[in-house]
TrEMBL record:
<dbReference type="Pfam" id="PF00067">
    <property type="entry name" value="p450"/>
</dbReference>
<feature type="region of interest" description="Disordered">
    <location>
        <begin position="1"/>
        <end position="27"/>
    </location>
</feature>
<comment type="similarity">
    <text>Belongs to the cytochrome P450 family.</text>
</comment>
<keyword id="KW-0503">Monooxygenase</keyword>
<keyword id="KW-0479">Metal-binding</keyword>
<dbReference type="InterPro" id="IPR001128">
    <property type="entry name" value="Cyt_P450"/>
</dbReference>
<dbReference type="InterPro" id="IPR002397">
    <property type="entry name" value="Cyt_P450_B"/>
</dbReference>
<dbReference type="GO" id="GO:0004497">
    <property type="term" value="F:monooxygenase activity"/>
</dbReference>
<keyword id="KW-0408">Iron</keyword>
<dbReference type="InterPro" id="IPR036396">
    <property type="entry name" value="Cyt_P450_sf"/>
</dbReference>
<keyword id="KW-0349">Heme</keyword>
<dbReference type="GO" id="GO:0016705">
    <property type="term" value="F:oxidoreductase activity, acting on paired donors, with incorporation or reduction of molecular oxygen"/>
</dbReference>
<protein>
    <submittedName>
        <fullName>Cytochrome P450</fullName>
    </submittedName>
</protein>
<feature type="compositionally biased region" description="Basic and acidic residues">
    <location>
        <begin position="1"/>
        <end position="12"/>
    </location>
</feature>
<dbReference type="InterPro" id="IPR017972">
    <property type="entry name" value="Cyt_P450_CS"/>
</dbReference>
<dbReference type="GO" id="GO:0005506">
    <property type="term" value="F:iron ion binding"/>
</dbReference>
<keyword id="KW-0560">Oxidoreductase</keyword>
Length: 420
């Protein structure tokens, strides 16, 4: 049975209600779409209708989210011709390129065992030990950006001045992008993220970054440096296990997966802490609480909701009392699983001391975020340094005046005016 005809099965599985339309909008910056609580109460897997007209499953609860994300009968391979998409299957230039030129080495979209071959090549780049070596560089970058903010007056847009450039510059350090190229690299990554306002410009920026990375790898081939690209060139590329094209696509994947996510978490986390002054005061009094606060902010904000968690059953499989047929689309609602009261008491409350490390903000299973240790280090340094160096940081804007974005399933802020 395919996705298209599966609505007929609703009566058979006891979910007689007309499927709700998906995706749903966030209406409050502190909460996922309000319908999620109702879906979660209805069941761990619920059927919804996407704009193309197809009916898919959404996974609402924490335990079943982990089950779906670890079941080998559920695929993430978006190059499958019948892989579920939200809208009509358009063969846009962008989609074509993603499925062909950018696919080789882009292991986030691959199933085992192919996925594991590529991921294994990068594991040592993201260990806690390696990330600890990057910390002084991250700290220096954060300090420099704050120096610039302070030198520029008594107010700034935190998205533009800090949230966007910090992760971009950290990825430059990781990949070994030379200083002289950083402005070019940053302007293109910024344009790439403006996708909802300017899809054509975003596509062009993607292709320019891809070409830039291609050239960077070529230059590095002549003289491999002591950085991620250099090590991959000396290791798997030299051994004939990794092609030039796959290496370029892997670096592009790191940029795409690591940039917007972290860039959104920085201003959103600052905003959330400013709106919870008691908890912020506790962290200022005891900075050892920052790592725990980062976990709770990741859970509470769930910036990656369903967009990274699109899956398809490739065999019949029973999960949460529902029978998924081969071909059924299955999207995990990360933001719902992270508010599951079965796992997090007072799930709708921010509690920076709760110990939230078992959230699914970084996913679960074989695709669990490879860059999570780096993301944790960046967020911890970003929040702590900002609040230490600008103790009277504030926003004078009410919630209604702030501009949030949720396009494409990633939650963020378009801008965040702050002053001190
Ligand atoms: C707050 C920041 C971040 C969040 C919330 C986040 C979230 C996620 C999530 C949910 C996944 C799982 C996708 C899936 O199941 O298909 C993922 C995968 C991934 N992330 Fe992150 N991420 C963050 C930062 C980073 C950083 C900084 C990097 C690297 C520079 C990175 C690199 C990756 C890669 C390579 C994958 C694919 C892993 C695989 O398929 O094996 N992420 N991330």
């Amino acid at each position: 049975m395919t996705m298209q005809d599966s609505p007929d099965r609703d009566a058979a599985v006891g979910d007689a209600a007309t499927p709700r339309s998906f995706p749903m909008a966030r209406r409050c910056p502190y909460a996922p779409p309000p319908e999620y609580a109702e879906l979660r109460a209805r069941g761990p897997l619920v059927r919804v209708q996407v704009p193309s007209g197809a009916v898919i499953w959404v996974v609402t609860r924490h335990a079943e989210a982990q089950q779906v994300l670890t079941d080998p009968r559920i695929s993430t391979d978006t190059s499958r011709p019948d892989f579920p998409v939200l809208g009509k299957r358009e063969h846009s230039e962008y989609e074509q390129v993603m499925r062909t030129k950018l696919h080789e080495g882009s292991f986030i979209d691959m199933d085992a065992p192919e996925h594991d071959i590529y991921r294994r090549m990068l594991i040592t780049e993201f260990t806690v030990r390696r990330i600890n070596q990057l910390r002084p560089g991250i700290q220096q970058t954060a300090d420099q950006l704050i120096d610039d903010m302070l030198a520029g007056g008594a107010s700034a847009d935190l998205v533009e001045a800090f949230g966007l450039p910090l992760p971009s510059l950290v990825i430059c350090q990781l990949l070994g992008v030379p200083y002289a190229d950083r402005e070019y690299f940053q302007s293109r990554t910024r344009r790439m993220l403006a996708s909802s306002d300017d899809p054509r410009g975003a596509y062009e920026a993607i292709m320019e970054i891809r070409d830039y990375l291609d050239d960077l790898v070529r230059r590095a081939t002549r003289d491999p440096g002591d950085n991620l690209i250099g090590r991959l060139l000396r290791g798997p590329v030299a051994a004939g296990e990794l092609s030039h094209n796959a290496l370029v696509n892997m670096t592009f994947l790191l940029l795409v997966a690591g940039h917007e996510t972290t860039a959104n978490m920085i201003p959103l986390g600052v905003f959330t802490l400013l709106r919870n002054p008691d908890q912020l005061a506790g962290l200022r009094a005891d900075p050892t609480g920052w790592p725990g606060a980062v976990e709770e902010l990741l859970r509470y904000l769930s910036v990656v909701d369903w967009v990274a968690f699109d899956r398809m059953a490739i065999e019949d499989v029973e999960i949460g009392g529902q029978l998924l047929r081969a071909g059924d689309g299955v999207f995990v609602l990360g933001a719902s699983a992270n508010r599951d009261e079965r796992v997090f008491a007072n799930a709708d409350e921010l509690e920076v001391g709760r110990g939230a490390r078992h959230h699914v903000a970084f996913g679960y299973g074989i695709h669990q975020c490879l860059g999570q240790n780096l993301a944790r280090a960046e967020l911890e340094i970003a929040y702590r340094t900002l609040f230490e160096r600008i103790p009277d940081l504030r926003t004078d804007e009410p919630d209604e005046a702030l501009s949030f974005k949720y396009g494409g399933g990633i939650f963020g802020m378009n801008s965040f005016p702050v002053s001190w």
